[in-house]
Design goal:
alpha/beta, Serine Threonine Protein Phosphatase 5, Tetratricopeptide repeat, DNA Cyclobutane Dipyrimidine Photolyase, subunit A, domain 3, Rossmann fold, 3 domains, five-stranded parallel sheet, 52% helix, binds flavin-adenine dinucleotide, deoxyribodipyrimidine photo-lyase activity, lyase, FAD, Deoxyribodipyrimidine photolyase
Length: 409
């Protein structure tokens, strides 16, 4: 049974309420308890704000400001750092778009293999249904498919067991997460799976250990050490030529005033407000539904519902009458914008991921019709992404400057 009710409704008001409820826990209590996975309904040591932050129903700066206000920079440091990890991964993938392109190609190849390999098929079915016989893994698979959420530590253990103990292709695991996570994000998800696999920090995979699982699940699970692969070295056969080179950040055209404009709302950034739209000559507004693009396989209904509600909430907050578009045929976007008389589309910045791939297909059609795609890129991203070229350490070192430039300290 699917029950993601703990995260609904997908509105800014609900996100802010969750933020207020968790604010007193963002300090030393978070630093001490955040690794504990007490199971569905008991994730009180962490904020569970990720589905809201991922869509900017609540922004990174808002949650950091709340943490700093309640606890000060020293005690809130751990929480603030975790939020920065999100910006780091987003920036990292932005600077290495080829990693995403390779993931997509590799996933399609893995899915083709899956069709013809009956043994692999039955292993994947068992893993996704939580029927492997490894208690903790099975419980996490069921929690994910029924709630759309997993604790960070469970994600790490699960991915490690998937790759190294069960020996399953990492991209199929990443895709399983991406199809089900309400906070599913192309950067955080892909980079985290790569990190567990020993691809992000090459040759340093994450090893799931029985004592660690037993300790941080408060004894809910008591696996035996022999159940899990040990002395792992990571997926050293992948990317023998190393990482693709770091690219400059993609240049962005900002929305221009006095140009007939079609505004697109997407779940990439639901923090659009009336002030973003103030100077625009807006002719039409649409909510673009795109979360089905996360995978060639079926995406969890809860993910689709969350996006639908989040976009409706964004439109309502900005007082906008909207139409609905679904990212299926790119030509439909061009037809809609052209029918509205638009010369530019204004939308939140589209980071590397499925929607950017779809927009790349729409781009030549829009160009042919004389319609320019313009984007709002947020200051927060512009502050972090220049530093996301190597390890997280580089971003962490810049933390005081980033927080100060964002007006948070
Ligand atoms: C294999 C794997 C896959 C993951 N896939 C995703 C994903 O698709 N989307 C996603 O948002 N996060 C992903 N994460 C990161 C992390 O697990 C989640 O952000 C976190 O568990 C969300 O729960 P929370 O809101 O209670 O976090 P909290 O601990 O309360 O943290 C507050 C916020 O900080 C950010 N954050 C915290 N930890 C991380 C982290 N390690 N990396 C990036 N951001 C972080 C999130 O926005 C989170 O909401 C993944 C981690 C792993 C190991």
């Amino acid at each position: 049974m699917q029950d993601n009710s703990v995260f609904m409704p997908a509105t800014r008001t609900a996100g802010l309420q969750r933020l207020r409820n968790f604010q007193s826990n963002m300090g030393l209590a978070y630093a001490k308890r955040r690794n504990q996975d007490r199971g569905p309904g008991n994730h009180s040591a962490v904020s569970q704000l990720s589905p809201y932050i991922r869509r900017r129903l609540v922004t990174e700066t808002e949650v950091i400001a709340a943490a700093l206000a309640a606890h000060g920079p020293e005690n809130a440091e751990k929480f603030v750092q975790e939020v920065l990890w999100r910006g780091y991964f987003k920036g990292w993938l932005e600077r290495r778009p080829q990693v995403w392109a390779n993931y997509v190609t590799g996933l399609n190849r893995d899915l083709d293999t899956l069709k013809s390999d009956a043994a692999l098929q039955s292993k994947i079915i068992a893993a996704e249904a939580g029927e492997t016989g490894i208690d903790c893994f099975d419980a996490w698979a069921k929690e994910l498919t029924s709630t759309g959420y997993l604790h960070n530590h469970a994600r790490m253990w699960f991915a490690s067991i998937w790759i190294f103990t069960l020996g399953l292709p990492w991209r199929l695991g990443s895709d399983f997460f991406f199809r089900h996570l309400l906070d599913g994000d192309p950067a955080s998800n892909t980079c985290s799976w790569r990190w567990v696999a020993g691809l992000h920090t090459r040759g340093k995979p994450y090893e799931a250990r029985a004592w660690n699982i037993s300790r941080f699940t408060g004894g809910r699970f008591s696996p035996r050490e022999e159940e899990f692969a040990s002395d792992i070295i990571g997926l050293m056969d992948e990317e023998p030529e190393g990482l693709p080179e770091v690219q400059p950040l993609r240049s962005v055209i900002a929305p221009q005033p006095n140009v007939p404009t079609a505004v697109i709302l997407t779940e990439e950034d639901c923090s659009i407000t009336t002030s973003d739209l103030a100077l625009l000559d807006t002719r039409a507004v649409a909510r673009l539904h795109a979360s089905h693009l996360r995978s060639p396989r079926a995406v969890y209904a809860g993910v689709i519902d969350f996006e639908t509600e989040a976009l409706a909430d964004t439109a309502a907050r900005a007082g906008l009458e909207t139409e609905t578009l679904t990212a299926i045929e790119p030509i439909n976007l061009a037809n809609w914008a052209e029918a509205a008389g638009a010369r530019q589309i204004a939308m939140p910045y589209v980071p590397v991921g499925p929607l950017a791939d779809w927009m790349a297909q729409a781009q030549p059609i829009l160009e042919e019709r004389g319609i320019t795609v313009t984007e709002w890129r947020r200051d927060w991203d512009a502050l972090i992404w220049p530093h996301a070229t190597a390890g997280f350490f580089k971003v962490k070192k810049q933390m005081p400057e980033i927080l100060s430039a964002a007006g948070l300290t």
